[in-house]
Amino acid sequence: MLSQIAKRTFSSSAARANVARFTAIGRIGTDLEVSQSASGRPYLRYALAVNGPKEHTSWYNVVVFDEHAIDSLTNYYQKGSHVYVEADASINTYGEEENRRSTLNLVQRDIRKVGSGRRPGAGEATEESA
């Protein structure tokens, strides 16, 4: 009986779900923009600035659909907040062959404050997680 419990099993079937996950630490680089979809569903958008080597900054557009996260973001986060972000990632390609373009779509799954969101000495209280 114990040998049956301890035995590891592996499946040769294909995975049921694929995952593309984006993780970054950066600063919220824009004001938080709350909008509503055509169906009336609220969402929030912001840009995330991530500093790279040699003073290069990469900008990522992030969208949030979870209503609890939207409330938390609007109450505890603002432009300049230093954050850790996890998001689902997908690529959208559009346009004709000669002018084909791609965009990276990021749907936030988690956000946490890394620091106070202001430069040291500014004295802002922190909220640990949204």
TrEMBL record:
The keyword Oxidoreductase is annotated on this UniProt entry: no
Keywords for this protein: DNA-binding
Alphabetical list of Pfam families matching this protein: SSB
Keyword DNA-binding: yes
Chain intervals for the UniProt region annotation (Disordered): 111-130
Gene Ontology cellular component terms for the protein in this record: mitochondrial nucleoid
Positions of transmembrane segments: none
Superkingdom assignment: Eukaryota
One GO MF term: single-stranded DNA binding
Cited InterPro entries: NA-bd_OB-fold (IPR012340), Primosome_PriB/ssb (IPR000424), ssDNA-bd (IPR011344)
One Gene Ontology biological process: mitochondrial DNA replication
PANTHER family documented for this protein: SINGLE-STRANDED DNA-BINDING PROTEIN, SINGLE-STRANDED DNA-BINDING PROTEIN, MITOCHONDRIAL
Full protein name: ARAD1C10626p
